[in-house]
Known about the structure:
Low-confidence stretches: none
Number of helices: 1
Order of helices and strands: H
Distance between the termini: 61 Å
Largest sheet: none
Strand content: under 5%
Shape: elongated
Amino acid sequence: MGAHGIAMDDKNEPEGIVLTEAQLRSRRQRSIAIALALGVMVVLFFAVTLVKGPAVLVRPL
């Protein structure tokens, strides 16, 4: 018996939702776009910090 009380079969059928090639390609492109956007934001924040210099830490509480 498996973890859910169902006997394990020798079937190679995946469980749950199976995505098509187009959906997998779309997911990958979306993930790459998100990663690039995040990378650009990190570089932008780093550049702004370098330009402002130590003054970025001097602020009223």
